[in-house]
Predict the 3D structure of the following.
Amino acid sequence: MTTRRVARLIGPVVTVALAATALGVPAHADDRDAPPAVHPRAETPVLHDDEAGGNADADDPAIWRNPAAPGRSLVVATAKEGGLRVYDLDARPVQSIAAPPPAAEDDAPGRFNNVDLVHGLRLTTGRSDLAVTSDRGHDRLRFYRIDRDRTGGPLTDVTDPSAPAVFSRDQAEINDQRTAYGLATWTDRATGRSYAMVSRRERTSIALLELLPAPGGKVTYRKLRTLDLPSTFRMPDGGSWSPCGEPGELPQVEGMVVDPANGTLYAGQEDVGIWRLRADLTGTPKLMDTVREYGVPGVYDEETEECVLGADPGFGGTKLTADVEGLTLVTEPGGDGYLLASSQGDDTFVAYDRERADDNEYEGGFRVAAAGPALDGSEECDGAAALNAPLGARYPNGLLVVQDGHDSPGDGDRPATNFKFVDLGDVLETVED
C-alpha cells in the first residue's frame, strides 16, 4: 500500500457495496482423509457459560510477547459476558476483567467477542502496547494498556468514556445486537497510524476505524469507511444462492487478520469462505476459497430452528467446512509463512501460503488432538492466534493458541470451553511435511 493511498483514509465515511458476481474461486483436489494431528502442551481452566460460571464462554485469544523477558509473555482472551482473561505461558490465570454492566437495567450487558493487539500506540502519556476487544454488548471497542508487572494485573482500562458506538445509532439498536463482532488491528508501516477492522453481527459489513489518543492517556477511534460483502452469490449454473440462516440474518464475518507486510486483510465470512482484500477497504475483494457448503440450498425450519439442506450441487471448496472461524498469520522472513483458518465444522485447521504472489495456495491441514486423558484437543474452534517468535524455554519455536468449544471431560451438561496451547514448531513441522 502506498503512502498516497493510506492518506486517503482520512477522507469522509463511505460505504462500498459489492455486486455478487461469479467469483472464479480456484478448485482444489478433494481430500477428505483426516489431517495429521498436533497435540497441546497446556490448557487454561475451563469456563462455563451459565449463571454459576458467570456466563463465561471462551472465544478468541491474542498473544502478547514480552520483549524484555519472552518467557513471561501473556495470552489475552475473551470470555464473552465473562469479560477478559489473561494467562501466562503455563496457561495459568493472571488476571480477570469483567465486561462492563448494562447501560440501564433492561439494556444489553457487555460482551467481549474478539481481541487483538496494537504495539506502541502513541498516547498522551507515551507509547503503549494495547489489547483491543470488540464489546458486542455495547457496540464499542475497549482498550487495555499492557504493563506486565503492574500491581493488580497487567491490563488497565484506557477506553475513552466518550468512544462512539461502531454501528448503532442509539441504545435501541445496540439492544438489537447487530453490533461490533469480529476484530483485527493493523498499524501501517508507512504512516505509523493504527487501525481496527470491525465486522457487524448478522450483517456483511466491515468498518475501518482509526485508533486515536484521547486526553488522560485514553484511546478512542473514528470511523473512516465501511464495506459490505455480498450476501447473495451467482453460481456457475447461472442461478443465485444465499446461505441459509434465520430470517433477517445475513452471512456475517468474524475471523479476520491483517498481513502487516502488505496491508492485506483476510476475512472469514462464516458460511461462505475467506475473502482477501485491502485493509483500507478500497478496491475489490476476492473470495480466495469457499466452504464445502457453498452453493448448497437450504430452508430454515422455524420449529427446529435449524436449516434443512438440499442436494449439494458441487460448487463449494474442498478444504473448509462451515463455519470459517479464527484466522491467524504465521509470519516468516522474506514474506514466507502461512494463513491458518479454523474449519469449525470438521474440527480441523487449514493452512494457506501467506504469499499473494502464489495466490495463497493451499499448503496442508492439521487438527489439535488430545494429548492424553487429562488434556483433550480442540473441537468447534472459534478463535486462534499464532506467534512465530521465541517465547522462553516453554515455547522456543513460538506458540499457537486455539479455542476449544467442547472441553472434556467436562462437568455434566454444563457448557465447557477453554483454550489450548500448542507448540508452533509442531504445527510448522506437520504442515511442511
Observations:
- The chain is about 5% helix and 40% strand.
